[in-house]
Amino acid sequence: MQYPDFLEPWRSAGRPLSKRIGDVLFSGPTYQIEIKDTLQSFWVFLQLSDDYSVKDIFCSCDESTERGSCAHMAAAYLFVAEGDIPLHVRFESSYWNRLFLAVHEKCGARKPAFKEVGDGFECLCEGASLFKAVATKKGMGRLSLLLAPKAEETEETSIKFSNLTDEELERWRQGRPSQQLRYELSPLSDLAKWLFLEVTKGQFYQLSLVEENAVIDVTEFSLTIPDAPSLKPVGAASPPTAIQFDPKAGKFQFTADEKLQNVADVSQFLDSFSSFLEIPIHTDPVVPTYHLYVDPEKRLHIDACLFEKGDLSSKNAHVWGRWAYLPARGLERIEELKFPSVNHIVTPEELSEFLTSHRYWLSLFPGFSVHTTKMQEEIVYEVESGALVFRSVRQKSHETKEQIDFDEWTYVVGDGFYVKLTRADVHALPLDKPIARHMVADFIRRHLETLKSTPRFFTSECPIKEIGLSIQLRRKGEIEILPEYEWFSEEDKKGAIFYDEFIFVRHKGFYRLPPTLRPLHFTRTITADDPQVWSAFFLEQLPRLKEEYSCTVDKRLEKADALALHVAPIEQAQEQKQGKEALSDYLLDIFWRTDKGKIQAHDLLTAKKNQERFLPTDAGLIDLTDERFHWLETLKERREKRKSKTSKQPSWRLFPADFLRVQAYDTIHVETSAVIKETFTQMLEKLLVQVPFDPPNLETFNCTLRPYQRHGVDWLWFLYQNSLSGLLCDDMGVGKTHQAMGLMDAIYNHRKNEGKRSLFIIVCPTSLVYHWEDKVSHFLPKLRVNAYVGTDRCLEGDDFDVVLTTYGILRNESAQIRRLCFDAAFFDELQIAKNHVSQVHGALLQVQAHMKVGLTGTPIENQLRELKALFDIVLPGYMPQDSDFREFFVRPIEKMENPGRRVLLSRFVRPFILRRRKADVLPDLPEKIEEIYFTELVGEQKHLYRNVAGSQATPLIQQLRDESLPIPYMHIFALLSSLKQICNHPAAYLKDAENYECYESGKWESFVELLEEAQESEQKVVVFSQYLTMLDIMELHLKKKKIGYAQIRGQTKNRADEVGRFQKDPACMVFLGSLQAAGLGIDLTAASIVIHYDRWWNPARENQATDRV
């Protein structure tokens, strides 16, 4: 099977997961596979085509939704494709399938019955026993699951119908299923598949024959099958009970009269079942070695051996393909022998052809090299200044050695074989003509075969022990990768010359380097011109290179660890006003420091503007997607265009809200200097710990505050002093009103001491106007209240200190109110303005005030977007823009459940929200709101229900009371299914969908109301039902109402088209699906409402289906 390209990135991660397979359901080429990941299990749906390619695949994990594939898909494919033949094909030819198919065929057209007997089950057909199963306590549960009566499998509930043709499906509907389909739908098929899967996963079991019966012992139970089909262990999916090895005959024996004699059979058997043998087995492959010699009859002998000369030729030693047996060691897995037999003999007549065919292989054995030159001369070579030169020299050494004549060849003992006659290719090599250095590699490639026969031209010893890499930043945006070699000896290194893939070592010869050691394999340059290549280098290639090789990496390319944000005040930007200093008076130098160096904030901002991700710096490699740098672009306007007097770097000027924003992303470290006093540090410390410069003056506040209320007033006063605003979100009864009035009194006294008038505005719901008027008059009697309500309301004059009005009036008269500038604005029950596109929200944005305070007990009711809407009112510009807020906070928290982003958002808003008595609001956000609608049976529906229940339940109850009779599970499930369908709609039970409007149904009426409600609010709806007739009724209703819809059922072919239309088409408002077909592996994120019209037996499947939305 060809491994799919789109799963290639997950192959490594999928391989270990393929060993952690849970439940497996399959029918033909359709699979549902449970992958047991580290923390939870995921289900993969896989369907193969006739050519075994992937036809459809999806997974229940989020990663597959985002990236289109995942490690779980790879694991499922690897599990199914093990052995290069799909699992279902292996099952079809397995012994288990043949065994239970034979049992099924004994029944003919009759259904086998399964009866619980003692500690197990018995399978009967018209009283005749087909098999008996005796189980352990654990195994009884497995047998019950496989054999106990259960609801009939249908198109909606089983994948066994996914591969049927229309003709087969129609025959099944007519009650005339084929013999194969009857077997597929029977518990016998399920039992065969389970046993086959247990074997595939490596579970041990035994097969034996006892008095014409087949006995199968597995971990959990034992099956006894009378007259079982022939048990043939070789090539089947199961090993035999006992295996005996005859060392003399070299054969494996299973029964008294059956032996494995064929070498291929033995090799195949050992590959599959070696773990069952009771003899020593060594599974690490051994590479054979060879002993060569020429006998007096001029025959060339090549004897294979493993550990010592002649061991494979010794008595009782045997070889079968990839396995060998040595009496002293047991079984050894070996590499394939070079020749068919252990003792290979080449006759004189075969020698010439043999030498030509195996010339290079023979050169590996000293004294048996094949020389293509005449015996009287020898070709030698030299390397001079990188150039290669060949020369011819006379040989005298052969005259004193024994020689054996082979017609065209002469064998010189100790030297090898030489041609006797002059050959045309002897002088194919240019003699005495230097080959330039840059041409050597190409010359060797063109004359490779001739040079292999040239004595001592090639060496078999690789001079390089290990290769490492030097990875350096040569200039900005350019990385150079060069090889660094570790040599076996310094002598080899001194005389080595590289010629592309060849290396020359003085006194040894040339060696052709494998691809993993060739210089050109590693020498390359990475540039930032292509952002994708640049990012891929740091994300994938550099980590892999560091893992696989010893690398010398430029410190600027190493990830910067322990980044610390530093703020250094450089100078005061302006003169102090009235003796008061502020944080915004200072010009700042902002940078990050690491153990390697430091990097300026403005350099990172420039890189972010250029849309760079990875930035090599003196402080190390910076990943600009790190969320700690997210504030840079938000505060880019705070960077001063002019440089300070004392620094060459561009400076920054930050306001209190800016410091709090930065502190949310990163911890601020302050660096002071002799030029700047400690005032800046003290002011910043008070800001970060939320301490006011001086306590609020509440001398005219006619109220005694409780400790936590006083803390609230101090917090509000801190915000006011720093020109900030916030949300007071205490629970009802804590005293938000009193704390707001405490702040009003503090501001009033502060402004009075400065000789200035105070002006406040309070906006609240109409029902709270007089409550506020009474409280202010009572606790702040010096403040004059203008209740800006009623027909005679007026804002002219200055005889009031407080404007008290409603949200409705503010919405209609925003233009008049925004002409006034208030010291503080208080918005009670601010959640009224949570809709950022509402008119009330727009009017509140127009209110002019030095400080805005929102009072609410529920800053968030459903979505994080509501929190941003409130912040945009009280602290405009603090929250990111809508698109940034959605991508950076909403999606990671609400969709991906990212705890890091949840914590960051909490830190981001914490300085401006005070909430007591309840836990922090963000973790308590409901992911979904569930409601159960109870409806009553109506009219004819109630009558039909009682009739069916009365007519079918009575005999079942009588049978249950009789303990001698078996429990009629099938009839009970059938009755429950009928009653569920009546509850759904009488037309669903009566199979009369076309006339559904002629029947009454309480549940249907409630469903129609819910659907109309959703349509009015323009929300998309997903509806699940397990009954196809009910889906037919819904489809007819939607067509009548001209409501766009999509649907997926068991027989749906174009699943992706249906999902795509619902996701993308604004007119497609409803998605209909059966729970089995559409409850897994798809995403319906366009919907906001899910309706389970009827309940499934397993709530977990309902939850999985709901999570599609």
Describe the structure.
The chain has 1109 residues and is an alpha/beta fold. The protein folds into seven domains: 76 residues, no CATH class; 138 residues, no CATH class; 82 residues, no CATH class; 90 residues, no CATH class; 132 residues, no CATH class; 211 residues, Tandem AAA-ATPase domain (Rossmann fold); 168 residues, P-loop containing nucleotide triphosphate hydrolases (Rossmann fold). Helices cover 33% and strands 25% of the residues. The protein is built from 38 helices and 54 strands. Strands 44-45-43-47-49-42-50 form a seven-stranded parallel beta sheet, sandwiched between helices. Strands 5-6-7-10-9-8 form a six-stranded antiparallel beta sheet. It has a four-stranded antiparallel beta sheet with strand order 1-2-3-4. Strand 2 and strand 3 form a beta hairpin. Helix 31 packs antiparallel against helix 32. The two termini are 35 Å apart. About 4% of the residues have low confidence.
**Helix content bin:** 25-40%
Proportion of beta-strand residues: 15-25%
How would you describe the shape?
Answer: flat
State the CATH superfamily name of the largest domain.
Tandem AAA-ATPase domain
Distance between the termini: 35 Å
- Read across the widest sheet, the strand sequence of neighbours is 44-45-43-47-49-42-50
- Strand segment tally: 54
Main beta sheet, described? 7 strands, parallel
Overall average residue pLDDT: 82
- Structural class assignment: alpha/beta
CATH topology of the largest domain: Rossmann fold
